[in-house]
Amino acid sequence: MENAEKASAGTKGTTKKRKFPKILHKDQLELFSMMFPVYLQVFIFCYIPMAGAVVAFKRYKVSKGIFGSPWCGLDNFKFFFKSMDAGRVIRNTLGYNTVFIILGIICAVFVAVLLSMIRSRKSLKFFQTTMLFPHFMSWVVVAYMLVTFLDYKHGMVNSFLVKLGLEKISWYYEPKYWPFFLVAIYLWKTIGYNSLVYYSSIINVDSTLYESGAIDGCNTWQTIRHIMLPMIKPTIIIMAILAVGNIFRADFGLFYTVPQNSGTLISVTDVVDTYVYRMMFVTGDIGIAGAVGLIQSLVGLILVSVVNYLAKRVDKDLGLF
């Protein structure tokens, strides 16, 4: 008994003296303090507004506000899916984004590989700056740049057609051309930034791998295929996961500003984001706009989780979480 009491007393003593490990070291605390403004911004602009998601289940009235408006259950969702616009909006959003993801990854990786082959520093900086510049341009600026090409009266393209003896084309009244215009403009604006992301992964590949390939007699194509692309595969997959998560979202500036909000082009330019905008500011039905926005967020969450799961099934080291 005495031994047991001494043992228990010793255990209590050691329990009191036990020091828990620090959660954050000093250097980690400095890093987190630098990230705090970003966390605060995300919390204010992303998490706090989530309380307003209840508007999707309400018949919104301005006089009563979000929380005072009467509940309507799933009526807003039913209205959207039964409307004639739902099929067009969903088709355009998914169709364009699928093409954007596939062509965007292929073109960006291709450009990144070409950049990695440039040996002149001046030439490399020139191409990097030139390709990155469109990324920082506003869609409004891009829209007016496009007008200088496609304007019916004074556009450069129509002027060129007239010189060839052809008739002018009312580009902003011809829906059949705009799927190609939108894809080309999107790639032109985004390919520079995305290619630099892949380029940064390429230059971090161990140079000894290239040396081993050269000793084994690998030519340029074999080096790219068997060494370079496999080494940047995690970056490609992560970028693809992020892109798939936004597949039900569309760039509002691209689909609203660039086509100049032309009514004759709605059949090929109306996507989820432009539909929500029109429901809010044209018809004034905030409840339906909130329902569509909630669907958009849920679809993105599901797709990110599914694609991340499939990526981790292929390789445990891949994926975001």
Average pLDDT taken over every residue? 84
Counted up, domains total 1
CATH class: Mainly Alpha
The sequence of SSEs as H and E is HHHHHHHHHHHHHHHH
Number of helices: 16
Describe the protein in words:
- The chain is mainly alpha-helical and 321 residues long.
- 69% of the residues lie in helices and 0% in strands.
- It contains 16 helices and no strands.
- It has helices at 2-17, 26-47, 65-68, 75-82, 85-116, 121-132, 139-150, 156-163, 178-203, 207-215, 220-231, 233-245, 252-257, 266-269, 272-281, 286-314.
- Helix 5 (85-116) runs parallel beside helix 9 (178-203) and helix 6 (121-132) runs antiparallel to helix 9.
Summarize the helices and strands and which ones pair or pack:
Blueprint: H1 2-17, H2 26-47, H3 65-68, H4 75-82, H5 85-116, H6 121-132, H7 139-150, H8 156-163, H9 178-203, H10 207-215, H11 220-231, H12 233-245, H13 252-257, H14 266-269, H15 272-281, H16 286-314
Quickly describe the structure.
This protein is an all-alpha fold and 321 residues long.
Task: List its traits.
69% helix; mainly alpha; MetI-like fold; 321 residues
